[in-house]
Design goal:
5-stranded mixed β-sheet; two-stranded antiparallel ribbon; globular
Length: 296
């Protein structure tokens, strides 16, 4: 079954130097962009991983190299991510996203590289990955048949392994084929709609990709780790504003720092607005109750 799309859906996959979002880097990025009507375009970049602190090429973890088959010397002549980020952004523009296990790894890793391009190379990347729909095919797969991509391809696409597993392009194309086969298999149960697909096991409660800030049942931003776990960001802003400075100087993903910074700016604006307006009748009544009816 072909996808019913209102706007392009960009399938993507990443190979990296390792699994640490904060310290590792992309070495291969592949996009398969599917347009309403079925047209598809493919683009793959080999990328030289860069350590911005040490100003040298980032080494690939031996375990990662064993899986993806890429060695440090293979990337010496490749461009840095900062050199291709504008082209990457143009592919991302006006698209929703899809991938396999992308919510937990590929999307945060892509976001981190974009934030590095902004911070270290001064790139003005007009991309907001938090505002797009994200269809994680693994979530749909695990919802119905909890296994991995290879097993998913065998299960949904005819019983054979796909070639070149663990190369970004092969994994991306396999993910696209698996999603179409899932729609065929669960026709009548699984709606052919990106809004629905992206909601299955999705990241709707995550404010940042690492899940350090989540939304509670009331839609309020809540800290999801450490000593302030389960307490609202707004409360901590009021009682311990230095916490936000600590976040910026600690070892967190750049996206996490960015979301804390945006929340801080919003709360500061709300604070200024509240200070500049006259108190409401409800607020006056609350003060009256607090001071047993005596305001002066």
């Amino acid at each position: 079954m072909e996808l019913e799309l209102k706007r392009p859906l960009l399938f993507f996959d990443i190979e990296s130097t390792g699994l640490n979002i904060v310290s590792d880097c992309i070495i291969e990025l592949s996009f398969v962009k599917v347009f309403p009507g079925g047209e598809q375009r493919i683009k793959t970049w080999k990328i030289r991983p860069w350590d911005y602190q040490s100003k040298c090429q980032k080494k690939i973890d031996p375990g990662a190299s064993k899986v993806n088959g890429v060695k440090d010397e293979d990337l010496v002549e490749c461009p840095l991510f900062t050199e291709v980020v504008d082209e990457v952004a143009s592919w991302l523009k006006d698209s929703d996203l899809a991938g396999f296990n992308s919510t937990k790894f590929d999307l945060p890793m892509l976001s981190e590289e974009i934030e590095r391009a902004r911070k270290y190379a001064g790139k003005k990347v007009d991309v907001d990955l938090h505002s797009v729909k994200m269809v994680d095919v693994q979530n749909i797969y695990h919802f119905y048949e909890p296994r991995n991509l290879r097993a998913a391809y065998r299960f949904y696409c005819g019983g054979e392994d796909f070639k070149n597993a663990h190369t970004a392009e092969a994994d991306t194309l396999a993910t696209y084929e698996v999603l179409k086969a899932q729609l065929d298999r669960y026709e009548g149960e699984l709606k052919n709609d990106v809004d629905i697909l992206s909601g299955i096991g999705g990241r709707s409660k995550y404010v940042d990709f690492a899940g350090r800030i989540i939304l509670n049942d009331k839609g309020e931003e809540v800290i999801n780790f450490g000593k302030y776990k389960d307490r609202s960001v707004k409360e901590i802003f009021r009682t311990d504003p230095s916490y936000f400075s600590w976040i910026q100087n600690a070892d967190f993903a750049l996206d996490t720092k960015r979301q804390f910074e945006l929340l801080q700016k919003r709360l500061e604006e709300e604070q200024k607005e509240a200070a500049s307006r006259a108190p409401s009748q409800a607020e006056l009544a609350s003060l009256k109750d607090k001071f047993n009816g005596r305001l002066f």
